[in-house]
Design a protein that fits this description.
Layout lengths: L8 E5 L3 H12 L3 E5 L7 H5 L8 E2 L3 H6 L1 E3 L1 H10 L2 H10 L4 E3 L4 E4 L4 H14 L3 E3 L4 E7 L2 E7 L5 E3 L2 E4 L14 H8 L8 E3 L3 E3 L4 H4 L3 E11 L2 E12 L3 E3 L1 H15 L4 E6 L6 H14 L15 H11 L12 H12 L1 E8 L7 E3 L20 E3 L7 E2 L4 H16 L1
Parallel strand pairs: 1-2, 1-11, 2-7, 11-20
Antiparallel strand pairs: 3-6, 4-21, 5-6, 8-9, 9-10, 12-19, 13-16, 13-18, 14-15, 14-17, 15-16, 17-18
Helix pairs in contact: 1-6, 1-13, 4-13, 10-12
C-alpha cells in the first residue's frame, strides 16, 4: 500500500481564478494536479477585469462583505470562514504580488496590471509542478459507481482517469474569453439542477434618444433611484457613465443585478438621477440664485457652466422647458423651481439590460442545495467539486465576485 494511497491524481477544468487557486491548493496538499484549459493561456477573463487592473478582492469587514453578496450568501459562510478577503491578500503578497487598497476598499495589484496577477499564479503553479494542458477542451465527465472516474477530451476523444475533479469553468459572461457554459452542461449531465441564468452586472439600455448626446460623460457622486410605478426598487450613490445606448459605470452595474426579476415580469422601470445629492432643494435653489446673480445679463443657455459639465447643459436646458435665450434675471421663481426639481430628478425609461458579451458575471448556476458548503463537493456524485462562477453565487461590483471564486476554490482544493 505504501504512501501512494494518500496521493491522488486531481484534474481541474478551467484555468480562470477559481481553477488556478484550487489547483495550487490541491498541489500544496501533495496531490498530483493537472489543469485543463481550452484557451491558449490562463486567466483570459481575469486579464480584462477591473479595466485590466484586476480588482482582486475588497478589504471590508465580514458583515459588509456579506451585504454585497446578492445570491445565496449563507452557502458561502463556510468557505469565507476558511479563506476570507484578508487571507486572499496575504496569499497574493506571499507569492510575490504587492497590493494596494483604493476607495471603496477595492484591492488592486500595486502595478495596476492584471497580467501580474496571472503571472504570480502561473509561477506558483509551475513551482508546484502542476501540469497545464492548453487548447484542451473537456467534452465529458466520466462517473463509475456514483463517483468521478475521469474525463473525455474533445479534440481526440481521449479518456484520462483521475481520483477527483474540480469544475471551475465559469459562467456565460464575456463568451469570447471561453466561458460558454461548459460546466452547466457537465453538472446537468451529472444530475445537478441549474438555476435560471441571466447576464448580471451589465450596462442598462434607455429609451430616451438624447442619451446619445451624453455619450462618454462620466458623473461622479450622483445618486440613482430605480422605480417601478411608485415603488423604489433600488437606490445607490456613486459613479455613472453614459454610453451610446444608455448608462454604465459602478452604480449601474450593481443596480442591474437587482433589476433582473422586475424586467422578467415586464414591469416598467424608471431610472431617476439626482445630479446634486449633497444639496437639498432649498440649498440647490440658493446655489442657482447665486450663479444667476453673478451673470445677471447672460442668457439662460450660458448660465449653467459653474453648475454642470458641458455635455449635460444642452440636455438640461431642453428638459427644463425654459427658453434658452431668456436672460437669467427674468427667469421666474416657478421656472427656477422646475430647474431645481429637474436637477434632483432627471428621469429615463429603462428598456432592457445588455447581453452576456457585456456582462461582468452570470446570475444563476449550479443549485447550491446540491453542493456541500463545507467542502464544495457535489452531494450527488463523489469526488466532484465545484468552485467559482459555475455555482449560483453572485455579488455586486468591487472585488466581491472574485472573492467568491478565491474562497470557494480554496475550500475545494483543500477538501480533496
Amino acid at each position: 500500500m505504501g504512501m501512494e494511497n494518500d496521493m491522488s491524481r486531481v484534474f481541474v477544468i478551467g484555468g480562470g481564478p477559481a481553477g488556478m487557486l484550487s489547483a495550487i491548493m490541491a498541489a500544496r496538499k501533495g496531490h498530483q494536479v493537472e489543469l485543463f484549459e481550452k484557451n491558449e493561456k490562463l486567466g483570459k477573463k481575469l486579464y480584462i477585469t477591473g479595466k485590466g487592473r484586476c480588482n482582486l478582492t475588497n478589504a471590508c469587514d465580514r458583515d459588509t462583505f456579506f451585504e454585497h453578496i446578492v445570491s445565496n450568501p449563507k452557502f458561502l459562510y463556510g468557505a469565507f470562514h476558511q479563506f476570507n478577503n484578508y487571507d486572499t491578500m496575504d496569499f497574493f503578497e506571499e507569492i510575490g504580488l504587492p497590493l494596494k487598497i483604493e476607495r471603496g476598499n477595492r484591492v488592486f495589484p500595486q502595478s495596476d496590471k492584471s497580467s501580474d496577477v496571472i503571472r504570480v499564479l502561473k509561477e506558483e503553479l509551475d513551482r508546484l509542478s502542476v501540469k497545464l494542458h492548453f487548447h484542451s477542451e473537456v467534452k465529458d465527465i466520466l462517473v463509475k459507481d456514483g463517483a468521478f472516474s475521469g474525463i473525455v477530451l474533445k479534440n481526440n476523444a481521449q479518456k484520462l482517469m483521475a481520483d477527483a475533479v474540480i469544475i471551475t469553468t465559469g459562467g456565460l459572461s464575456y463568451p469570447l474569453t471561453g466561458s460558454t457554459g461548459d460546466g452547466f452542461y457537465f453538472a446537468k449531465n451529472l444530475g445537478h439542477t441549474i438555476t435560471e441564468l441571466s447576464p448580471s452586472l451589465v450596462p442598462i439600455h434607455l429609451q430616451e434618444n438624447f442619451v446619445k448626446d451624453l455619450m462618454g460623460l462620466s458623473l461622479k457622486n450622483i445618486k440613482i433611484h430605480v422605480l417601478s410605478g411608485d415603488k423604489q426598487v433600488y437606490s445607490d450613490f456613486g459613479e455613472l457613465l453614459f454610453t451610446h445606448f444608455g448608462v454604465s459605470g459602478p452604480v449601474i452595474l450593481s443596480a442591474s443585478s437587482y433589476l433582473i426579476p422586475y424586467l422578467k415580469r415586464k414591469e416598467k422601470l424608471v431610472l431617476s438621477i439626482d445630479l446634486k445629492p449633497a444639496l437639498s432643494e432649498e440649498q440647490l435653489d440658493q446655489r442657482i440664485l447665486r450663479d444667476f446673480n453673478e451673470v445677471k445679463n447672460k442668457q439662460f443657455k450660458n448660465s449653467l457652466d459653474q453648475l454642470l459639465p458641458n455635455k449635460l447643459i444642452d440636455v438640461i436646458i431642453r428638459l427644463s422647458r425654459i427658453n434658452p435665450e431668456k436672460q437669467v434675471n427674468s427667469i421666474t421663481r416657478e421656472e427656477r423651481f422646475r430647474l431645481v426639481n429637474l436637477l434632483k430628478n432627471v428621469t429615463f425609461h429603462i428598456t432592457k439590460l445588455s447581453e452576456y458579451n457585456q456582462a461582468v458575471i452570470t446570475k444563476g448556476g449550479i443549485d447550491v442545495k446540491e453542493v456541500n458548503p463545507s467542502t464544495m463537493e457535489s452531494k450527488l456524485v463523489k469526488n466532484i467539486y465545484f468552485a467559482g462562477e459555475v455555482l449560483d453565487l453572485d455579488a455586486l461590483t468591487g472585488g466581491f465576485n472574485l472573492q467568491i471564486a478565491w474562497s470557494s476554490a480554496y475550500l475545494a482544493g483543500n477538501s480533496i
